[in-house]
Specification:
Helix content is 38%, strand content 18%. By secondary structure, the protein is α/β, with parallel strands linked by helices. The radius of gyration is 31 Å and the shape is elongated.
Length: 536
């Protein structure tokens, strides 16, 4: 298992130290936050490859962190002697017998310690020192990657040319399932890991035999005719034959089928699902590290539910799972205790949630917890009418919607306030919660929440019982101008305002939200708006 990852100057990450959970890691963040880049870096260090090609073949100037590159050229322009940018990626593995050959002290930990791991470094090649200097002397701001080299080593300082056999890794990108000749590099690797050496040898030999028979029998008459053709140097005969070289090996020619349809022609959701199932097989040769990019892509809600059930069923004790997602359903279903937030080139975990809260959201996977995770600060309200009115009263107070200030207003839709506040506490984000008093003393209701609330980060706002038990009478009492209220709501003199609003909560809220005239917000709404904007 991976215990720690260190990344220096690779794309979004200037300097990152990431300590994953030994079993499940759910990576979430805004677009371009670095979720995929983190998995990419881990894959590079473990396999020495990117997109199925050797790292040196994929190397380009945009691998280097932009801030590091800009700083380098700025210092050079000032005449300062600075070292060329370098990329360092280190993956520290658990200390176990399986990784004994990878143990060494050639890593960046301080104080120095011997442990198993791999490192990939992209550094200037000293053999091209003069060419590098000549390039930099010109008017350029491009890193001369043509004069760089890739060093891939174990912590034992052994040069690596291929993935150590002790490490099995699978990367499934559900966003774009790449295929080449029907089977992409990653699927060939997964299929290969599922076959024992003697099975692979038997299949390979049988495949070569078939090709030999094809040449000797079915191509014989064609070759007899071609033997009479002229064109080759020295009048050597021309003939056709099946390719017996490595390029024509069985795993590049044999195509998996799904219900008798070639794999490449199956739906992308089906392709991704098959790859995940193969990679997570309970066989001894199953991948130790499985990385899945956005499993929700190309899948209906029902199919996604089936896939997540399979992931849960297949996950083994000896496997470490990394999943990137933009789906609250995926996050809740697999367990929010595995959440890792990637933001601004950093990776952060939050405080532990109780087992009960994790299970609570697993049973309610449709709730949009990801909005809490990604918001700068958020407001929890009881239902849609509260959400609509908070948005309107906030706009009246500040001239814009809450989201324009990074404030997300989230309806709990009957969920437990305690569970939502525990999420807020774990995230360490500023949160205001509004609720009805339901004819209970507000101070007693708040006291029941204990340390889930405080006066600085998380605060609950409840209307006074003297103003009504729910939101609707609170609004009516905050606006004693009866004629104004009836104009806004379009209610006749015969109707009781509080009763009418209570009978059609959402309809009343929509009329207030769309009105040209302003109403006064209840006091606890005003206090919540002031609190959520404080220190912003």
């Amino acid at each position: 298992m991976i215990e720690k990852v260190k990344i220096h100057s690779y794309r979004r990450f200037r300097d990152l130290t990431f300590e994953p959970h030994p079993r499940l890691n759910i990576l979430v963040g805004e677009n371009e936050s670095g979720k995929s880049t983190l998995l990419e870096a881990i894959g590079l260090a473990l396999t020495g490859r990117l997109h199925g090609r050797a790292a040196i073949e994929e190397l380009n100037p945009y691998w280097f962190n932009q801030a590091v590159s800009a700083e380098f050229f700025r210092e050079r322009a000032l005449g300062n002697a600075v070292a060329l940018p370098e990329i360092h990626i280190e993956v520290f593995l658990e200390d176990c017998d399986a990784f004994a050959s990878l143990i060494g002290a050639h890593n960046s930990d301080s104080p120095t310690r011997a442990c198993p791991g791999l490192s990939l470094r992209v550094v200037p090649n000293p053999e091209y020192a003069s060419e590098i200097e000549a390039h930099l002397a010109s008017d350029t701001s491009i890193i001369p990657i043509e004069y760089y080299k890739v060093e891939w080593r174990s912590f034992a300082d052994q040069v690596l040319n291929s993935r150590p056999k002790e490490l099995t890794i699978a990367l499934i990108d559900s966003r774009t399932v790449r295929s080449s000749n029907g089977v992409d590099y990653h699927l060939r690797q997964i299929l290969s890991d599922h076959l024992a050496p003697d099975e692979k040898a038997a299949v390979s030999l049988a495949f070569r035999t078939v090709k030999e028979q094809m040449t000797a029998t079915h191509l014989k008459s064609v070759n007899d005719k071609m033997a009479k053709l002229e064109g080759a140097l020295d009048d050597k005969p021309i003939s056709l034959g099946m390719d017996q070289s490595a390029r024509g090996s069985w795993d590049t020619s044999v195509v998996p089928h799904v219900a008798e349809v070639p794999f490449a022609m199956a739906g992308q959701g089906q392709q991704a699902t098959i790859k995940i199932a193969l990679a997570m097989s309970q066989r001894a040769s199953a991948a130790r590290v499985v990385m899945v990019e956005e499993p929700e892509n190309h899948l209906s809600h029902t199919s996604l539910n089936i896939l997540l059930s399979r992931i849960e069923a297949l996950a083994g004790e000896a496997q470490q799972l990394f999943i990137t997602t933009h789906s609250s359903f995926v996050m809740n279903r697999l367990g929010i205790d595995g959440l890792k937030l990637i933001s601004a080139g950093r990776a952060g975990s939050f405080k532990e949630l109780s087992k009960e809260t994790v299970e609570y959201f697993k049973k309610l996977p449709g709730y949009d917890t990801l909005r809490m995770v990604l918001a700068d600060r958020f407001v929890l309200v009881e239902g849609p009418s509260d959400e609509i009115l908070f948005e309107r009263f906030y706009r009246d107070a500040h001239g814009c919607r809450p989201i324009d200030h990074g404030v997300d207003v989230i309806s709990m839709r009957g969920l437990s306030l305690k569970r939502c506040l525990e999420m807020a506490k774990a995230l360490g984000k500023r949160c205001a919660a509004l609720r009805d008093n339901d004819d209970n003393d507000p101070s007693e209701l708040i006291a029941e929440l204990g340390d889930l609330v405080d006066d600085t980060t998380r605060k609950v706002f409840i209307g006074a019982t003297s103003m009504g038990t729910t939101l609707e009478p609170q609004v009516v009492k905050a606006n004693p101008d009866d004629a104004l209220m009836r104009r806004v709501l379009g209610v006749t003199d015969r109707a009781d305002l509080a009763t009418w609003m209570t009978n059609d909560k959402t309809g009343a809220a929509l009329r207030i939200a769309e009105a040209t005239e302003r109403l006064t917000a209840p006091t606890y709404f005003k206090e919540a708006i002031e609190f959520i904007r404080a220190d912003a």
